[in-house]
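In practice, a research group might receive sequence data for several interacting partners and want a quick structural hypothesis before committing to experiments. The following worked case mirrors that situation: the sequences arrive first, and a predicted assembly follows.
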Amino acid sequence: MPGPIICTTNTVDYSTIRQSLARGSRTKEDLKNDVNVCLECEGCHEKLDRMLTIVCTCFNVTFDQVREAIAKGADTEYKIGQATNAGTDCGRCRSILASILEKGH
Ligand code: FES
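A structural hypothesis for the assembly, expressed as tokens:
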């Protein structure tokens, strides 16, 4: 299921952007290069910052909170979940958590 359209100019949906985050995209430029978001339309202006900030939408856990948990020794998705709750409900953020662990950012 693709999810709602975020970039209305280039028709890039929510799931496509989340998959890009799971491949390691962390900035708007990364997303532009990987999935062709335009960075100019209303959807890009209103929604990309939040998508690049919140990794786990079930618990509103940020990328920074996950990085902090990793810095304090959470070296598995399970331990990140124990420290932040990220990944412990629907599980749809787990591929992004794995990416943060793998890439170190
Ligand atoms: S989005 Fe992280 S558990 Fe649902």
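Before designing any experiment, note the following. DSSP finds six helices and four strands in the chain. Residues 1-52 form one domain.
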